[in-house]
Amino acid sequence: MQQDRLGRGPFIELLSNIITQKTDAHEGFSFAIDGKWGCGKSWILKELEQKLELQNYLVIHYNCWENEYYEEPLVALLSVIVDKLNQLQGSLTDKNKKEKLKIALSFFAEVISTILTNKFGIGFDDILESGKKAIKKDSDSSISTTFDNNQGLKEALNSVREHLLQLKNVLSENDTKFANIVIVVDELDRCLPEYAIKVMQRLHHICFDTVSDKYTFIQLAAINKSELLGSIAKTFGREFNLKQKYTAADVRPGSIFYENFEESQIQFGNYYFKKFFQMIIPVSNGEQIENPLSLLEGFEEKFDSSDTNGREYVERFFTEVLSFFPMRSKLELIHLVKTAHEITALDSSLDMHLRYNTLCIELIDCLCKSILKKGLPIIKHQGNQDQPHKLYMQIPDLSHIEGITNTFAFEQSFAKWSTSSCYERLYGNGRKQTKTVYEFDLLFPESYTKIFYNPPKSTEIKYTGAGPIPSEVAFIKAFRKTLDALV
């Protein structure tokens, strides 16, 4: 298992236990994990799949986004199944099972070929023939001998389900270790919503048997429910408009006047989610990381280990500022910092003995320019004669940030993290007008970082004592040139 940065172990165990319980009960099941883009759903699925494979499950991983270029999702899904069965065939020693697996492979491959040949849909006669070729050694045909012109796709989906069921039975023969077939669907939230819905439809028809009214296999999908709700209402609720309302989860849509369109749309979408998933489990935020800098994976060792104040300040950046961002955004930020730093370090004229202050500035710059797509922060003053004077940093033009639900809370947290003390000084000479200057020393990283950012014209700041270290100033200047070239 890869490093569990957010303490997801118990959540993965929960998913595994659900699958085990349904397998032991000889039941199929369709469920999903729900979370915002970048919250770590893909990592959870990957770790779960490894765990299941060790328990002798046949796991079919379907990445929707990687296969979105297929107009018909069934083609992509069958391609993934064929790849998995080819891998499985190489590991089988039972000749009978290998022969039956070859028959299933032939069927799936020919269905793919037929769909691709027919640009506007399924070639019904061709599928019938491909099915006959694939199962010619079996006495029972999995495909009906006749097709309704309006049900070609349905027949194809049914035959895929029946062949997967046969495959499950074949793998179970004389093998008490084989557990079950699990179809795992990832990256739905990176696809166009309409395509994601089509994927869910195809998987539902493959995994769900309308005759028995039960799921045949176990299906687990990673979804972003909030992103899909609107598209579901639009796709399925053609009569749903501003004068109609979906009132409850157990009542079908009706023509009832309502006032809250968004709420009704959500209720409408929730109803149709029940067609695809029996259970939707929210992805938790995970547990707090004991060592916030573990995300840097050793990169922090490039900085002066004796700079304990600087290290603690960077740790606070991870826990107080980056806590608002999904894991994917954090890793993207760290990757950019590392890349820009290492490119800059190729300049042999630069001194590589750097304190954590440098890393702190690198993180701020990359966060603003790449993740937030904003300018660098400005220095702001707070305080009066009745309150202590302080300086803090503010990122300009913060309104809506993708992936952050509470922009105001993020802005407040960033300001609090960057706050440092200062002193108000009045300067004047004879009849010249007195001006106010806010002075601060550079002993602590909260103050030191501020010399690399600018205040508004109405505020004048000045540091006292020894100035910044020239080698750090040179490196940061070079780093910013590298960053400008990268973003």
Summarize the main sheet: 5 strands, parallel
Taking the alpha carbons of the first and last residues, their distance comes to 33 Å
What Rg is obtained from the alpha carbons, in whole angstroms?
30 Å
How many strand units? Answer: 13
**Dominant shape:** elongated
Tell me what portion of residues adopts beta-strand conformation. Answer: 5-15%
Integer count of domains: 2
Question: Tally the helices: what do you get?
Answer: 15
Chain-averaged pLDDT:
80
> What is the helix content?
40-55%
**Class by helix and strand content?**
alpha/beta
Encode the helix/strand succession as letters.
Answer: HEHEHHHHEHEEEHHEHHHEEHEEEHEH
Strand order of the largest sheet: 2-3-6-1-7
Q: Give the uncertain stretches in residue-range form.
A: 119-124, 134-151, 238-259
Question: Could you please describe the fold and organization of this structure?
Answer:
This protein is of the alpha/beta class. The chain folds into two domains: 274 residues, no CATH class; 195 residues, no CATH class. It contains 15 helices and 13 strands. Strand 11 and strand 12 form a beta hairpin. Helix 7 packs across helix 8, helix 10 packs parallel to helix 12 and helix 11 crosses helix 12. It is elongated, with a radius of gyration of 30 Å.
Question: Layout of SSEs?
Answer:
Blueprint: H1 9-24, E1 29-34, H2 41-54, E2 58-63, H3 73-91, H4 95-117, H5 124-134, H6 152-172, E3 181-186, H7 193-207, E4 208-209, E5 214-215, E6 218-223, H8 225-236, H9 261-276, E7 279-282, H10 308-321, H11 327-344, H12 356-371, E8 378-384, E9 387-394, H13 407-418, E10 420-421, E11 423-427, E12 435-440, H14 445-448, E13 461-463, H15 470-486
Parallel strand pairs: 1-6, 1-7, 2-3, 3-6, 12-13
Antiparallel strand pairs: 4-5, 8-9, 9-10, 11-12
